[in-house]
Amino acid sequence: MTRFAGRTAVVTGGARGIGAATVRRLASEGASVVVADIDEAAGRQVADSVPEAVYAACDVASPQAWNDLRTLVLDRFGRLDVLVGNAYLLRQGPADQVGPDDWNAQLAVNLGGFYLGTRTFIGELRQARGALVAVSSVHAGFGLPGRPAYAASKGGLLSLTRQLAVEYGPEVRANAVVPGPILTGAWDGIDEAGRERSARATAAGRLGSPDEVAAAIAFLASGEASFITGASLTVDGGWSVTKDSD
Which ranges does the record mark as transmembrane (predicted)? Predict the structure, then answer.
């Protein structure tokens, strides 16, 4: 497929996991892709492995970093059609043990980063009649111990996405994906028994792959989703419905 031929996309947190899979998916469908990440070594490795991809250092919590990214994108490609907000920060602990600095840092990256990216590129996205896609999480709707700031920020992303759809339609569509248990590097410290328990908690009976989330992101960013905006697409193998039935 060449759904993104002639188009340019920025993927934050593009150095690994869902972000890297999204870079590969969009590029495979014809897009020029900017791998935006603070991890230069991993980001360059992804960009070097994908035709028409470039790496850009980007701390998504920094307005200046976004301004620098915009300069790079316009100098290199002259346009932006798709912005995928995937960068995240997770620092675990119960609410009474999460200090203000950790709380603020997680909201600045997970929620503020998508706001800053939209603010920076909204002119280009309007001109291109482009698409915003936020990567939220099932944690936005289900309480799990030790993730108060992460859950709050991911819930905020869903609200922000709906707001952006209202504010910038019809020129720009804004949607979110809501991944569940996806086998990324975040699972490296979880043993096989823990992975099997998580797999059994899904209706699909397994963990998802980053490529499966990337496919959902590509769909929402494509013209095939032209009448979809302000929506959230859950990609969790039925984890949510299983939780609902508990």
Answer: none
